[in-house]
Amino acid sequence: MKVLAAMSGGVDSAVAAARAAEQGHDVTGIHLALSRNPQSYRTGARGCCTVEDSLDARRAADVIGIPFYVWDLSERFHEDVVEDFLEEYAEGRTPNPCLRCNERIKFAAVLDRALALGFDAVATGHYAQLRPGADGTVELHRSADLAKDQSYVLGVLTQDQVAHAMFPLGDAPKPLVREEAARRGLRVADKPDSHDICFISDGDTGGWLSEKLADRGVEVNRSGLLVDDDGEVLGTHEGSWRYTVGQRKGLRIGTPAADGRPRYVLDIEPVSGTVTVGPREALAVDGLTGTDPRWCGAAPQGELECTVQLRAHGEEHRARVRVEDDAVEVVLLDHATGIAPGQAVVVYDGTRVVGSATIDSTHRVAAAAASR
């Protein structure tokens, strides 16, 4: 097969490209230039989206012995990922930019161009597995190394996209991938993994949002109220976008709770700027509604007994899922905490990814029940 290997400059994508070439595929490596102004994005050898990363990717391609190109998708990335991130936070939601990048860049813009150029598949260094389905489709499954599993951020992929994907690292534990990189002579063998948002150079998400929203004419220093779950005013803040549901640190509340316990962000109201805080047990939810579903195959019919994952590195929760028109209703049999609108709910049948939806609202457990 003709395979386009997306090479971020990190160890995972380099080994994935090397494995694809070793399997006999006709592999071409590409690195995605995603910043319209490279100085505005993160710098340093962290494994994604920097000038250093493009050089690391090129050196890896040379060692593997495959052609290498850089594709400029900076305008598409800015519109589909960065602008989406800004708009979601301005609406009081908490988006996942890596998931959005997979959906709209790596497996939409890149895959569409790859197929148009005659490639059969796009290979990435994601930790996930592909297996043949009973009906001739291709199933997306969790990786063998559950500690590194990235099927959650791939849960937005459709069946057609999965059918043209390759994940050569799906059966490999991360330590062995680094050992393999060293044996192959890849200089990225010991390069740190990337964990930060690539387009926020200093890691200060609140400060970055304030700067970008100010550029849009938003009054970023307009004070909003910090209130408890009974409506009592506890203080003020300078931007609701600086908070996310479940946040504990950085609240700067001058009045301690009556019981002395820490408070957490429970709700964000972007129009008034009100941020509601309360005890941890008030974060518990027993259900949620998702919108904009994407299914890796046919949509579930009737009620599905399954598990769901609600954060990229979160635990699985037993659940019942029902699809109603364009909404996904999820009843959580295991209560979850700190779940924010804008995040994704990914549905699993065992290790198989069924599909995903964007969380639109959550159903909070009654305080008395949550505390039991």
From TrEMBL:
Gene3D superfamilies reported in the protein's UniProt record: Adenine nucleotide alpha hydrolases-like domains, HUPs, Translation factors
Gene Ontology CC entries for this record: cytoplasm
Keywords (A to Z) from UniProt: ATP-binding, Cytoplasm, Disulfide bond, Methyltransferase, Nucleotide-binding, RNA-binding, Transferase, tRNA processing, tRNA-binding
Catalytically driven reaction(s): S-sulfanyl-L-cysteinyl-[protein] + uridine(34) in tRNA + AH2 + ATP = 2-thiouridine(34) in tRNA + L-cysteinyl-[protein] + A + AMP + diphosphate + H(+)
Every tRNA-specific 2-thiouridylase MnmA-like C-terminal domain range: 286-359
Disulfide-bonded cysteines: C101-C198
Primary role: Catalyzes the 2-thiolation of uridine at the wobble position (U34) of tRNA, leading to the formation of s(2)U34.
UniProt family annotation: Belongs to the MnmA/TRMU family.
Protein name, per record: tRNA-specific 2-thiouridylase MnmA
